[in-house]
Backbone:
């Protein structure tokens, strides 16, 4: 979970609502069904070539029904695919495949496992309730097809049947397959959506902060560019006031105009100073940036000690937010102290964050940076004010790697150690460089 203190700068804690996407495009369902139809026709042709006997006409009728469904979807496509329409389409596929299975030997048909495809597609695109409903229907239809299946016959007319124990094993495997594939696919999809939403919220907040910083440059430029015309207005108004000494009413208007120009100049001068300060915030000493990242967690219990001295670096809001997440994780599990150190050498800038907590378990180290790593083994209870990391380490790792950094997670010292290394030319900034030309405000 992203650090709530980051959003107090004015960016919304929740991203703006996005238009709900279709659960799955009808074009995708139609394409998958065409592949299924091609496979079914190929299986019929091969089976007949091998001399295997089955009810050919009913099988072809079922394949023709699938072709008709696809043609209907192509010729009269719906304007938008709803979840209910997707369920109907997938249920049709389950019924069609189960009926084919019943006409071609039931569990003795080696292609019976294809009945798992519709429920797997549902698990990746629909919610849990609809997936469970379709999975239950699949299990019921497969069971019915197994009980009332028409047997296959070989070239000599002998029935091709499975031994009861083997048939029970195939049926059990299909039931387990429905549950496993649907559950696994749904879980993966939910995690990917949560990851996408968290990254979207973080990117929105970072983009807003960057826009506010760029606004400072525009304000400074506006103050500079408008200074001369305001001075001209002030001068002309003063001269008019002198010339209109014999017209008190007009002289008062000229004096009011001069006073307003003076006030505008004062306001712009103040805004210009603030804007220049914002421009300078694009770079900062390394220690100042680390203090900014650690500040929200300074009073949460463990002592946060910064032993960092380094060059001026690029003050990127994404880097600060990522470091803040790493420091939050260290504070959450530290016993009494978190130490932040820096080192420069061989063209690299290295920042190390270490705590005196229980460290990472081997299982966590293997999955560190994944969207949903488990917590540290033996960690202390969550402290007051802890909002949970959730995707915090994943987001921090993603943002820092985008800035050119490399991350290493380890144990020792005691507790956990996170090392962030940047190529010096990617992170260092020249604090003495000029601000550059003011942007042109008028075409």
Residues:
């Amino acid at each position: 979970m992203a650090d709530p203190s980051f959003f107090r700068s004015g960016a919304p804690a929740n991203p703006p609502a996005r238009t709900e996407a279709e659960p799955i495009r009808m074009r995708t369902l139609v394409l998958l069904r065409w592949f299924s139809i091609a496979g079914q026709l190929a299986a019929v042709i091969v089976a007949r070539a091998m001399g295997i006997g089955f009810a050919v006409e009913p099988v072809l009728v079922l394949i023709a029904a699938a072709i008709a469904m696809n043609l209907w979807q192509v010729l009269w496509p719906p304007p938008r695919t709803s979840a209910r329409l997707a369920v109907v389409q997938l249920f049709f596929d389950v019924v069609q495949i189960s009926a084919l299975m019943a006409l071609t030997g039931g569990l003795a048909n080696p292609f019976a496992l294809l009945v798992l495809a519709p429920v797997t597609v549902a698990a990746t695109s629909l919610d849990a309730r609809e997936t469970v409903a379709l999975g239950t229907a699949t299990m019921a239809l497969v069971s019915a097809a197994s009980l009332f299946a028409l047997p296959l016959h070989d070239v000599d007319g002998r029935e091709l049947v499975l031994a009861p124990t083997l048939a029970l094993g195939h049926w059990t495997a299909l039931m387990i397959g429905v549950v496993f594939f649907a559950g696994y696919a749904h879980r993966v999809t939910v995690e990917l959506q949560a990851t996408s939403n968290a990254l979207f919220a973080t990117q929105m907040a970072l983009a807003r902060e960057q826009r506010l910083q760029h606004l400072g440059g525009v304000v400074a430029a506006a103050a500079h560019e408008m200074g001369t015309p305001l001075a001209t207005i002030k001068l002309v108004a003063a001269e008019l006031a002198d010339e209109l000494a014999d017209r008190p009413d007009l002289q008062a208007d000229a004096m009011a105009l001069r006073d307003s120009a003076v006030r505008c100049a004062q306001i712009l001068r103040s805004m210009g100073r603030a804007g220049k300060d914002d421009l300078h915030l694009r770079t900062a000493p390394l220690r100042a940036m680390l203090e900014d990242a650690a500040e929200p967690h300074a009073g949460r219990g463990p002592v946060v000690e910064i032993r960092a001295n380094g060059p001026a670096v690029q003050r990127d809001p994404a880097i600060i937010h990522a470091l803040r997440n790493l420091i939050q994780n260290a504070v959450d599990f530290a016993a009494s102290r978190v130490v932040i150190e820096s080192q420069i050498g061989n063209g690299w800038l290295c920042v190390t964050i270490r705590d005196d907590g229980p460290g990472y378990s081997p299982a966590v180290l293997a999955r560190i940076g994944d969207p949903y790593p488990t917590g540290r083994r033996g960690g202390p209870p969550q402290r007051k004010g802890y909002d949970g990391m959730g995707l915090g380490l994943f987001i921090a790792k993603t943002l820092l790697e985008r800035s050119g950094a490399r991350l290493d997670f380890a144990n020792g010292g005691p507790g956990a150690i996170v090392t962030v290394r940047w190529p010096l030319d990617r992170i260092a900034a020249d604090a003495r460089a000029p601000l550059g030309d003011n942007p042109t405000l008028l075409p």
Q: What stands out?
A: The first strand starts at residue 152 and ends at 153. Residues 4-202 form one domain. The longest helix spans residues 164-243.
